[in-house]
Amino acid sequence: MIERWLALLCQLLPGVAQAVVVRRDGSLWTGWPKEGDLAPLQQFCSADAKVEDARYETTPAGLTRLAMPLRNGKLRVGTVAVELPLRADQRSTTELLLRWSQAWLELLSDTGRESQRGPERVLAVLEQACRFDNLPDNASSLATALADRFSFSRVLICLPQRGRLRVAGVSHAPTFDRRSDMFALLEADLERLSAAETLPADSEYARWLATRRPALQVLPIRLGERGFCVILHAPEQVPDSAVKAQCRQIVRLVAPFFDSQNRLREGVVWGWRERVMTHFHHASSRRKWAWGCGAAALVLLFLALPGQHRVTAHASLEGEIQRAIVAPEKGYLQEASVKAGEVIRQGQVLAQLDNKSIQLEIQRWLGEKQEYERQYNRELTALNPVEMRIAKAKIAQADAQLNLYRERLQRVRITAPIDGVIIKGDLSRAVGSPVQRGQVLYEIAPLDAFKLIIQVPQKSIRHVAQGQSGKVLLSSLPHDAIEFTITSVASVYSEHQQDIVYRVEAQIDNPNATNLRPGMSGYAKIEVGRKPYAWLIAHPLLDWLALKFWRL
């Protein structure tokens, strides 16, 4: 465009020998004629480039060089220089012609920018619509870009999701409440649209928009096969045909990208389901009948195959031998060195009672024994056999009491009878408190011998028998299924979560597992036999119906 303008300028000015346009940095933009030596004129044009007025210079050949700043609006973009025969009285006219020609250049530039504004706007919106890796962010970005570029009140992007239209993006709203009436009414109306329809003025969503302040009108545009780009605008700002055409072009270009991201979001299973349903709808009636018969035969074959019948119930681990540690004497707790959860060894001191009262009793009986011994010696000297026998009996009584209190003194130190773990008992905050004789202080279970307690519901207990096997999955070991064998089925019941359950004991098949602890719980599956899949699926309903009919 700048070359055409310079050529027209040289034709307008009479006798022009050569002309150049130089950029602000001094580089040559264009020149006329192309085959001439433009270096002297370019050098004159580049000198004093910051000068804002016209400059003149006379050449040795008698020609005049004229340089003027070249502007685009208020911005200086370069300098234009011409070399031509010019008298002094012609300078003002020539400057005026140059300024007028610059006005033509600005007009041409504005016309070119206006013609390019449409494609630039479309490309800018497309760039915003493809910025992210997930569909909701891209939908929100597309809606925001359309609303900003075309000055719409609001734009909504609706896309199919699991067979239904859902609002995927709203302009200027990264997060929104899908339960709003604005979205529910729009989704319901769009579901009823055909490929060539627009929302009628009496639709529920249009009536709802008319009640808003300010009132809005709706313009839906198809996005792919089932999606929509919904434009909301004021009644006095109806988009013209050019804006609608650009919006349709944007939606048509972005639709394949949104469809691919939507298929990735819905997953492989739903994609295959859609393909099968589409293929089925386009098939002939004979082929549909054949497919239906084949599917029914496969279902019947599956229902006739035998499957493993399993009874699922809550289970927990208990120690095979559980020992209770009780207080041997009545007294006060002096020391408690262990608490629940600690691993202990046989003979380890667990707690100790206060022994001051026992020590006092031992000292008292030692004194009485010494007094009886002195009495025995006196009677022996006096040769009094009756009193000697009485004193000797009292000495034996004192020895018996001393042995009793010494044995009680040994029992104040409570030790562990076996190796194991403390599963119950924490006396660390009860030091100094009184304890009664026979009071349970701790419960101990071994670490290498367990039994599994399964709480089988009453509706499934008839299927469980001794010798059956199964697997249990504990909450603390969710990736390791432990095999077990049922050892006994008790007739004793209890209530668990408002249901009657029966206690079933089982033996762990891998007793050497080191990561098991008493008290761990989970769910056990008992294999009680093989039944057809039809019976496995239907027998809970059949049992329930049998009870209901029996009550009639």
CATH class of the largest domain: Alpha Beta
Give the CA-CA distance, first to last residue.
Answer: 97 Å
Summarize the biggest pleated sheet.
Answer: 6 strands, antiparallel, barrel
Given helix and strand content, the structural type is alpha+beta
Whole-number total of structural domains: 4
Number of helices: 12
Overall pLDDT metric: 82
Helix amount: 40-55%
CATH topology of the largest domain: the name is Beta-Lactamase
CATH H-level superfamily title of the largest domain? GAF domain
Radius of gyration: 51 Å
Provide the β-strand percentage band.
Answer: 25-35%
Would you identify the regions where 5 or more consecutive residues have pLDDT less than 50? 112-116
Give me the count of strands.
23
Give the spatial strand order of the biggest sheet. 10-19-22-21-20-23
CATH architecture of the largest domain: 2-Layer Sandwich
Described by the principal axes of the CA atoms, the overall outline is: elongated
